[in-house]
Model the fold of this input.
Amino acid sequence: MEPVQWVDLLVSLTLLISSIALYRQYMQNRSLVDLYFSISALILLIAYFVHLLNLQPKNFFMNWGKLISITFYISGLLVLIRESKPLFARFPLYLTSLPFLSFLFFPLIIDSIVIKDLVNGIYQGGALIVTILVFTVNKAGESGRRYYISGLALVSLAFILFWFVFNREMTESIWISEILFSAGIILVLYRFIQSNNNDKEISGTVN
Done:
């Protein structure tokens, strides 16, 4: 295999592990957060797997895969924010599905490289900022917060390198950002699942 295919394989394995682990969490907890995050990882996994096998049109699958994946992820973040609030302060659940309305506009931008990249960059950047706030500020009292900080630092570095360096002038080095992205996802996923299991144990003890 070509070096780029090995990187695609690494990212695919990371996404496969993430999707399975989050779906197992969903089956145990029945939380929409886990379901949305699992679907997000699965969709991106399909896009990378198509790219790995060099199936055509691979760029079409990758473009749509990234847009749909980040939309599911943003909806998952909205559910996570909603569930972190007291019952009386929670916004209606249906509002967490508002990002899906953007599916209606994707066909209008998918063929325009500039607009497509702009939308993807805004979506990813916005999701990253919200994730940093949710996982580092809201979970400031957790003992394992260093995993969130380390993982999100790697993902942030991957985002910055991809959009401001590699995607413009050094496209042959995009693999660096993808490896950083994979490492960051694994760290955040590990702590996220561990935190969910701890919350479940505490809830079971209280009950």
